[in-house]
Amino acid sequence: MLSLSLETASILIIPFAAIPLVILLSRASRKIAEIFAIAVSFIVLAFSLSLVYTYFTEVAEKGAYIVVDLSSLTYAPFKTELFELKFLLDPLSIVMVFVVSLISSMVFLFSKGYMHGDKRLIRYYVFLLLFVGGMLILVLGANFFLLYIGWEIVGICSCILIGHWYERKEASKAGIKAFITTRLGDVLLLAGIALIMLHVGSLDYLVFSEHVHALKYILPLILLLALGGAIGKSAQLPLHVWLPDAMEGPTTVSALIHAATMVKAGVYLVARLETLTLFYPKVLYATPIEAHAIHEFFLAVALIGSLTAFLSATMAVVANDIKRVLAYSTISQLGYMFSALGLAGFIAEEWEGWYAGIFHLENHAIFKALLFLSAASVIHAVESRDMRLMGGLRKYMPITFATMLIGALGLAGIPPFNGFWSKDLILEVANISGQYIISLLLTITAFLTAFYTFRMIYLTFLVPESEHVKKHHPHESPPVMLIPLLILAAGAIISGLFEHFFGPLKKSLITVYLIEHAHSEENIITPVMSTLLALIAIGIVHSVYGARKYPPELFYKYGFVRKLNTVLVNGYYFDYLYEQILARGFVKVCSTASWYVERALNAVQVTGSVLLAKAISSLTYLVDRALDALNYIIADGAVKLGGFIRKAHTGRLSSFLTYTFLGLVILLAVVILVLWGV
Q1: Which domain holds residue 232?
Q2: Which among 289, 312, 338 is the end of a domain?
Q3: Number of domains the chain is built from
Q4: Burial call 156-186: b when 16+ CB within 10 Å, e when fewer
Q5: Distance between the two ends of the chain, CA-based, in angstroms?
Q6: Fewer C-beta neighbours within 10 Å, C or N terminus of the chain?
Q7: Structure pTM?
Q8: Contact predicate 370/107, CB 8 Å
Q9: 38-69 pLDDT, tens per residue?
């Protein structure tokens, strides 16, 4: 498939190749460089749509997957079995390419208006391009090595973009916090990859699938370590604390990285691990592994996902920062996806849970990017993120209101908008899984989601306008910012109204992964109940914030409500636990240990100095004694030698002549012997 190889190579190379060109063009004109960066994002989108169409029309129908080998592009010294430029085209990777390219192009276009006049504009676009390139490597790579390379690229870029306005203390701190928190998960993922290399001898996805049966007891450990990486990247409990603070970056960054792409990397990783353990062994070797063999993995994913979904939704209920509401919402919806993927191990047809999670990933990417960009439009107009300083914006920003309302209906799960179909599917999977606590948590979360979503809509657009709004005279955003909103709003409607919009995904899932018994019975109870819960929540919001029959102040007279509000506002004190107890406790332990070590070293130093001084003194004494003794010996020897020589002088002339003659004879004899060569 030459076209598939060309499209894949183009998608992967173009973002990286564009970076130096953007920098060079910025020397001539920042405006030209900006337009070029936006054009590049749409070129990548065009190639991605072509790839998606080609795959679903020519490959998936035949029940095939494609491995694109681009190793020929690698410089010879780097051509090893470990570093192979191979990329896997299957339903999962194709879905992710579509999501990344679509949302990124909308964000690039929206940034043209939102980031206007920013003093670090070129830096912003450079790291956006680098991020998109890293994300595409992550989702298309056919081995864990490329996955980890992409994983690290998006992690570094996200931290830099979060701290884009680093002169602000909050933004700088948020970037560092994101880096440290996600790094904990990255270490666990790296440990899992190391175990794969140790026990399999290769990082190739398909080779790993071939060996899943042989891994036996080590497989659950590998999966749980990899899950640690997914938890960090997708902001799940207990590593969720970085995402709300990440809202200090530009809202466009929030839309791209923290709503539609990077945080989905963890979901992608879990979904990929499930394809490699459940689906590909059956496709390649006709020996599927049973879900109960990795029961611990599925249970951990489902529990973490459901708890995260519920707790984050409760935090969103009391948040007053519009971006924090969306941040907590993102964490909660990611929990929904994790729950679906985890519950796949508890139902007869595992593919239904897997499909529900990925289906919601697609829908969430569209309506959450729409909500974030709509929020950016609002913030751009009123210059504040506090919803208490908004109100009445419907008449000033009718298009933004309409698009944000569509996104809110999708998030709340109101039919026929896209979020309803995937959320309903997840709730149905939870109901048939037999995991009733998880099902209850997800159902309550559905109610809370509708509540905090429309609380945001009312406080922003429908309640009477605040004094802050009156002073700022807000107006609708420029067309360059509205066009992405309208495109995403259309996507949120179309993907819900037309079931076949995502039909190719489901069909390819069945054919490529050899799914059997793919026809499930329709259950009308779950969608009806979830819709009723959402409508009840919206009705309560209207009574409290719209009609004000029961204003919020009425509830705060109860002590229990005030205490609960304090707990929720402080995010269940996770930040306090990490920063004030664990971090400061660690610093205190290190400081105490340092004090003791320093004292010990000082003691050793003092004791050693004393001992060394004594040793030197003793050595000096011994040397002095030895030198004195040597002086006495030399003097005594000289005296004795003199006495011996003196005896030769008798004082008689005859004796002196005799000794002289004997000396000459001896000397003459020696000379004769030398001359004769004796």
Answers
A1: 1-289
A2: 289
A3: 4
A4: bbbbbbbbbbbeeeebeebbbbbbebbeebb
A5: 100
A6: C
A7: 0.84
A8: no
A9: 999 999 999 999 998 888 887 766 666 788 88
